[in-house]
Amino acid sequence: MISKLPLTQNINAARDPVNLETYEANHGYQAARKAVLEMSPADCLQVVQDSGLRGRGGAGFPTGMKWSFVPMNTDAQGNHVSDGHKYLICNADEMEPGTFKDRLLMECDPHQLIEGMILSAWTIQADVAYIFIRHEYHLASKLLQEAIDACYAKGYLGKNIFASGFNLELYVHSSAGRYICGEETALISSLEGKRANPRAKPPFPQISGLWGRPTIVNNVETLCNITHIIRNGADWYKTLGIGQDHGTKLFGVSGRVKNPGCWELPMGTTIRELIEQHAGGMQDGYKLRGFLPGGASTDFLVEEHLDLAMDYDVIGKAGSRLGTGTMIILDDKTCPVGMTKNLVEFFAQESCGFCTPCRDGLPWSAQVLDDIESGNGIPADLNTLQNQVRFIGAIGNTHCALAPGAMEPLASAMKYFADDFKAHIDGKACPYSTESKAALASAGVN
Amino acid sequence: MPTIYIDDKSYDVPEGDNVLEACLSAGIDLPYFCWHPEMGSIGACRQCALVQFRDADDEHGRVVMGCMTPVSEGARFSMNGMKASEFRKNIVESLMLNHPHDCPVCAEGGECHLQDMTVMVGHRNRRYRGKKNTHNNQYLGPLINHEMNRCISCYRCTRFYNDYAGGTDLSAQGAHDHVYFGRQQDGNLESEFAGNLVEVCPTGVFTDKPLVNDYTRKWDLQSAPSICTGCALGCNTSPGERYGKLKRIHNRFNNEVNGYFLCDRGRYGGAYVNDENRAKFAGLRADDGRYNAIESQLATDTLAGWCVNTDRIAAIGSPRASIETNYLLRRVVGGKNFNSGIGDHEASLVKQISSIMQIDSVNTPSLRQVESADAVLVLGEDVTNTAPRLALSLRQSVRNLAKKMASDMRIAHWQDEAVRVLAQDCLSPLYIISMAESRLDDVAKRSITMSATDIARFGFAIAAELDSSLDSIAGFEPAHTQLIKSIASDLSSANRPLIVSGTGCQDQAVIKAAAAINRALNNSNGMLSYCLNEANTLGASLMQDGSEASLKELCERASKGQIDTLLIAENDLFRRAPHQQIETLFNNINNLVVLDCIDTETLAQSALALPSSSFAESEGTLVSSEARAQRFYPVYQPAEQRQSSWRWLTQLGQSIGLESFEKFTEFDNVTASCADDFAVLAGIVEASLHGDYRYRGMKIARQTHRNSGRTAMRANISVHEPQQAIDNDTPLSYSMEGVNGKQSSALTPFVWAPGWNSNQSVHKFQAETGGALKGGTPGKRLFESSSASSAESDRDKIPVVEIPGPFEAQQGHWRLLPLYRIFGSDELSARSPAINELTAAAFVEISVDDAETLELLDGDGVLLSLPDTKVCFEVIINPSIANGCLGYSVGLPGAPWIAPRSSVTIKKNHAWSNTNRDNKPAKIVIEPGVSNV
Amino acid sequence: MNQSTKKDNSQANARIISSILTAPELAEIDHEISHAPYRSAVAIDALKIVQKHHRWVSDESLTGLADYLDMSTAELEGIATFYSLIYRKPVGEKVISLCDSVTCWIKGYAQLEKHISRQLGVGLGETTADNRYTFLPAPCLGACDRAPVMMVGEETHLDLTPDKINQILETPILKSPAPKNPVPKSPISKSDGGQPE
Ligand SMILES: Cc1cc2nc3c(=O)[nH]c(=O)nc-3n(C[C@H](O)[C@H](O)[C@H](O)COP(=O)(O)O)c2cc1C
Ligand code: SF4
Ligand code: FES
């Protein structure tokens, strides 16, 4: 019986991380062996394309389509011929506030990721792969390195893997900090040992990426999915989702809920089910005011959206993004302005400093939010913020997607929590701080 | 030519451009910061935003960056729509958040690109209530001032400094809104091209330090089109003056020559004209050796008196003086009594080079053409130090492979980062065979060093490898044989191979070897470029018909008492021949007359010293090493009795009644007469326009129309405005009245256009943004190669090849190798204070092995025994110097003239200390009423 | 004939550098170089290695490292100052990174920050007088389900409360030997807002 929750099938919080032995006992590396020995890269690509897998790094770009842009040189017999290196990079930077899913996958089942990477590398014929992992994930790095060493020892990595003639070197590269490193082209700059400034696209990394060579960057969770897609086929994969999108997804909830955490659930699971069943609903004494459905760079949604399915297009239509699928809950005792300020400050601090709207515009937005939050706001500030949203908020206005992402929570907060903004400015204080509540009460404002 | 639509108007735009370039070319003022026509696009500032529509029905469109968007047939944009203009306004507002409001005290004020763009987008009101970020400034040396708070993080500085010019000591540091552009620590900026930061930076972060210290606004500068006298490349400059002082030199765009950039020698080397010690008055030496200031008329009369016996006079011209000065001097004394002043050995080298350049099949490239080379061999020339701007062009040439790779991937060349990323360290081949390591080695495929003799041998071996009809040369070690093969193969497989050589080795064989390789390549696109020393070296050399005397001959005649009066124009002979020889020459002459604009040792020996005006105060024609004749114009009126050498000579000629000198009162007549007399110089009349050129009846204004007037400087004397000086010789006027912008391209004193106060306005003067100037490239090439002529018939014209034997180190004797320095080797620029600060003391360089043998350490002193003298130099141990050779610094303070290719003995000087040198040049003082030593 | 070919000064540099960078550091850096296309490609790894051994990157280390990697000090400085986890100013024996991102903020970051400051007697960006701790804010540490979170050294601490923090900070810290030649405070901060970055 094939698991309906493949990504976490080996994961049991009470147990040690899955080692090579256990992993292999559960069909581990069978897909990889089969693919490199029996399937052509084109076959693998077809399966991935058929599966409809969409990238789990936040943007939801169809993985098969992304891979199809990698130039493949074949000889008359259709065999792949190399004209230099190609690279596969696993994006394990996971620095988007509120996101904590990739860590789980890497800490609990490192081989699942490695097998996914072998399969992906085979498909695009990459001979070198990197796992770009954030510095703070010491345990995950260590476990991955141990797992990689075990694979090298068994001939699953390195030269002539599975005696197939295919070579693949896999390295763990630990970052030196900065959220922007998660942006795929900035990640590539960083991997090259440079300042992590994003690069203009086109040319896309698939054509000219790491060291100017064809490169694919995929999220940890995306690559883990590959393992199961190749192992069980596209048709099986399509049966997993319950909405429009296919497969399962790691969903998470954090904030003031009873049982914050991360679960593998079918794509299309409703938000209500996530929050009420899995996360146990709001903590006692707190009410739900809104939530960021997929990490810090997604728009707030509110109660009326609770019955939406967690599918890329459904959430998109509601005005937000599925993002990383890890949700942050805003409760009724937390100031929405303060929360927005915290988010914008994060993005301002993490701007790479390359392009103007982001480098200078985000700190300005943060400054205005700080003024409002601290009771120094003026009515014109709301116009300024709206203006900033227009100016920074669209993809293309800035060099990369960091700054537009930063504007999503701000834009939606001003839409859904307009009264709160106004109250701050009119009352010249944050109504959520205990002192000001007392002051406002004594002044007769409620 | 694709058609694009901007605000529903259609424009035919050049294929391959980006939309920003296309807009600017079409005359549309689209604001921008980070884009630069030479450096391409990176999309950092987001200032050049437009809205692009999918099609005619798309009503919303999306914001795109003009500089990152290729033009494509039928593409539709809006520039004036609310969305686009609001966006651009927001960008400026964002940039201004942290920008100080210090325009009134900012050195960029009035020519600030940020000011221009701020006005252009209409940003006025400040909404930001926070504090501004502040930064520490760094000491970056004597050339550049640093004021980081003004930074708008456009990344232009590091892109120019590192990516374009190959510097390594400037970087972007920090992140988010704390990005910092500077060095790791305080210190001199190391790149020879650092000065371009002044023009590349769109605000006042990097400013011209000498200007900052003695400040004038751009609008108060008086300017004229000029030519750099720092080396022979003939870069076009725009010097600015106020109150009789040269304040700064800016680049003057010339598409074929310097483009947008100068070297620091050129930019900062002109300040010598402000030297207090420059003579202002004619001086007659009294018996006690002091000079008495005399009236100009008296000076001319005296001189005329000394020149009556035309058989017994002689004259020495100068490679740093204009064609016209040299010509008149020659006319005064006649060809056989005239010497070009180049110095005998160098003159023979230059003659060799100029005859090679005149061979039909030889293409001498402009700097722009150098940039198109796809394989380069530098044979024996330390380009960075002898022809600095050429080094910058060579650095661009190696990127042609990257551009080719990009074209193959259909990535536009202006996609700067994408091209670099794609190509990584793939460079077109550049080979450097030189005497010591060079600043271009970092981009060379291979660079090797050896003695000058071996360089020539190596060159001939490459030629032989390319052309089997030539005798092959044996005796190379296997690694070198291999290298010779790979150089030959890279050159022969190139489309546009380039050989660079020059007089740097002071070796005929090297020059011939370069020609032999060019010939052996037999490629009609092949290019051969020779570096020469001074601004008019080629011009002075071309003005010869074979009748002239060598310096040696003149000395002999003088020693026989055949010369009474010797006239020297703008030349310090002690820099051309052994000290003893020149001393003797001067002793053997009754009347030594020297015209010069600097005070030299030669001037100090004159019986009559005549103050001539410098390049900044006179007009003249110079012929660059590319054989491009170009005209420079007076920026301001010379002070007191100073006047152009050509004028002094005209007056002399008239006094002694020489034929046709009466018409030489007009500058153009001198030029025309010279062109008539020397067929090879016929083109000089086309170097610029005739003095009576007018644009719609108007002269060209040297002053901007906002000039504040020039009276305040005299307020302590009189509040009445003095009459403007009248300029009868040139189409320019000393006034703010006149045409600005529409004049012929060779006559642009400064760039300015409405709304564009900064130097970015240059695009308004270009036919197509980034391309040639409207009205064509200034200057006239004297010889054009004709690829039509059969290369075969040229064969005879290629100099006879005598292949030297390999260099053998001789025990106890060292072969001298001339080494040059960008700061100090050139006579004129070395006198400008900022350059002087960067000038090293005279030195010799020795190999590690030889230093060990002689027990020498870095910083020790050694005594060189030259035929006529002994000199002491500081020792630098340089592993790249060949054993048995001794590199010596040419022209640096404290270094005497040394005969080329000499062998010397050397000895450690134990008494030497590098603190007690006095390298000050001789000074003479001529002031009315004060006679002095 | 003498010949100088394109740069390979790494040998010569190695001598000078070994006085600044120790043999184990060099070995680790060399290992990184062994699978990089060129030396400067490992700049970030090398900075991290140096920092692992010295806790921070001094001017001397920076210069030595730049030479070793065939790159300019300015370029390496540009890289070092870009990344938030490369310290160009000295830090204490352990860095306390208290997550200040959104979930932790919701769950009481502000109080914990005050609490830690009070306990340590230093504010954010500062190092305790005994040089044991440097207290820094950190962006989301990827454990939002267990917020509030902080890291002390390499260890992540979850579900923080003031009491729990007291316990953690009282755990004796393994004292690593103090650097032999204490390096002077770096003059590196060229911009204001001076946290070690
Ligand atoms: C500012 C920024 C930060 C990002 N951070 C991450 C990250 O930490 N992890 C990740 O997988 N993707 C991140 N992404 C998305 C990546 O750029 C890229 O789209 C993703 O790694 C592609 O993988 P996928 O196709 O498998 O989703 C980030 C994007 C932006 C703009
Ligand atoms: S939006 Fe611009 S400044 Fe911000 S991170 Fe992206 S490239 Fe850097
Ligand atoms: S000029 Fe186009 S983004 Fe800067």
- What is the percentage of strand-forming residues of chain A? 5-15%
Tell me the CATH topology of the domain at 348-533 in chain B.
Dimethylsulfoxide Reductase, domain 2
Which spans of chain A have pLDDT < 50 for at least 5 consecutive residues?
A: none
Tell me the span between the first and last alpha carbons of chain B: 70 Å
Oligomeric nature of the chains? heterotrimer
Q: Would you tell me which CATH topology of the largest domain in chain A applies?
A: Rossmann fold
Approximate shape of chain A: globular
- Biggest sheet character of chain B: 7 strands, mixed
Give the CATH class of the domain at 348-533 in chain B.
Alpha Beta
| DSSP E strands of chain A, number | 9
Largest interface: A-C, 53 and 39 residues
The CATH superfamily of the domain at 348-533 in chain B is known as Dimethylsulfoxide Reductase, domain 2
Share of helix among residues of chain A?
40-55%
Could you report the average pLDDT of chain B, rounded to the nearest whole number?
94
Bound molecules: flavin mononucleotide, iron/sulfur cluster, FE2/S2 (inorganic) cluster
Structural class of chain B: alpha/beta
User: In sequence order, what are the helices and strands of chain A, one letter per element?
Assistant: HHHHEHHEHEEHEHHEEHEHEHHHHHH
Calculate the terminal CA-CA distance of chain A, rounded to whole Å.
59 Å
Radius of gyration of chain B equals 28 Å
* CATH homologous superfamily designation of the largest domain in chain A: NADH-ubiquinone oxidoreductase 51kDa subunit
* Mass-distribution shape of chain B: globular
Question: How does this model look, in words?
Answer:
The complex is a heterotrimer of chains A (446), B (933) and C (197). Chain A folds into 3 domains: 233 residues, 3-Layer(aba) Sandwich (Rossmann fold); 84 residues, Ubiquitin-like (UB roll) (Roll); 107 residues, Up-down Bundle (de novo design (two linked rop proteins)), CATH 1.20.1440.230. The longest helix of chain A has 18 residues. Chain A has 446 residues and is an alpha/beta fold. Helix content of chain A is 43%, strand content 12%. Chain B is 25% helix and 17% strand. Chain B contains 26 helices and 38 strands. In chain B, helix 21 links the parallel strand 23 and strand 24. In chain B, helix 2 packs across helix 3. Chain C is of the alpha+beta class. Chain C folds into 2 domains: 79 residues, Arc Repressor Mutant, subunit A; 98 residues, Glutaredoxin. Chain C contains 8 helices and 5 strands; from the N terminus they run αααααβααββββα. Chain C has a 5-stranded mixed beta sheet, covered by helices on one side. In chain C, strand 4 and strand 5 form a beta hairpin. In chain C, helix 1 packs antiparallel against helix 4, helix 2 runs antiparallel to helix 3 and helix 4 crosses helix 5. The chains are: A alpha/beta (446), B alpha/beta (933), C alpha+beta (197). Chains A and C meet through strand 4, strand 6, strand 9 and helix 13 of A and helix 3, helix 5 and helix 6 of C. The structure holds flavin mononucleotide (FMN), iron/sulfur cluster (SF4) and FE2/S2 (inorganic) cluster. FE2/S2 (inorganic) cluster binds next to loops of chain B.
